[in-house]
Amino acid sequence: MLSGRDMREPAPCSAHPAPRVRYAAPDTAPGDGTLAVLRFRTAPSPDDPRVLHVPFAPLGEAMDEYWEVEGPVTSGRDGGLRWARGGGWLFAAIDVLESDHGGPENAAAFAYEALSRRVSAGPERHVQRIWNYLGAINEGEGDDERYKHFCTGRIRGMGEVFAQGFPAASALGHHGNADLLQVYLLATDQTGTRVENPRQVSAWRYPRQYGRTPPSFARATMLPCDDVLAISGTAAVVGHASAHVGDIDAQLEETARNLDALLESAGLPAGFHARDPLKAYVRHAEHADTVRAFVENRWPGTPLLMVLGDVCRRELLVEIDGWRYR
Ligand code: 3EB
């Protein structure tokens, strides 16, 4: 935790109320206070800039993800970039074709440059949370793995808006158009608080064996009113090493220990509940039942959206991200 404040004693908050994130039946119409809708499907996104198609196939019940703010929300598009702002919050997203930029590194740099420009153009310049989805993420060996090229391009493209500290993030491999890199973010006009996990080496300090460019993300961000923790993709990483290679049950246990440790580090009570939407990215569809049963048993009543996706380390079978409301 990088803040000197004791987050167990929330101060009266003058910042904008955090977005309410929830899952709803597919194709529920966005309302006046809807900042973003994430739909997990591979068809092109519709015209409404707030509605983003995310190229993952759902496993089990298909749900859309809604971000609601105290509106009104205005929105627009600018080339491949779409944005919506309202209630003190900004959603921005970009779809980039790698073939237009000569590969994942330059595509990532381009995406981050465009998002950095958009974020610096308005008051909502504090990026709290960011998602990165690329195709064939584990293709290529050693330093040539596509994820590692992405990491190099990402830091190259990060402008001044990222200089105050990395946001919480997820980086996963999708199974849609392998040429498509998608990056979307949530920002606001006040700083949040980065939270690290004492069980894990901070990603930006990972040793050289994981690539030339360490991944640039924080484990979580406490949103400005200290009432919502935005949780990065969390997997069975202990220290800097992947644990329990090939063992889905043990990876799930380790992931849950990491999530518990992160909540504790943020000054939050343990556990997830009905208000805390979680997302699980599962590498092999045959593990879907195991993952769902684990989450239902460990955190009863917690909304879970599960998709088929590849963790950026090929030995990891599952990753969980989400939101924890105080
Ligand atoms: C890990 O703990 C797993 O590159 O943005 C998790 C979350 C992971 C975000 C990223 C990578 C990223 O290192 C991988």
UniProtKB/TrEMBL annotation:
Q: Which residues form the Chorismatase FkbO/Hyg5-like N-terminal domain?
A: 65-187
Question: Which InterPro entries has this protein been placed in?
Answer: FkbO_Hyg5-like_N, RutC-like_sf
Please list where the region (Disordered) is annotated.
Answer: 1-27
Gene3D superfamilies xrefs: RutC-like
One of its Pfam families is FkbO_Hyg5-like_N
Q: Specify the domain of life of the species encoding this protein.
A: Bacteria
Name of the molecule in the record:
Pteridine-dependent deoxygenase
What organism is listed for this UniProt entry?
Luteibacter sahnii
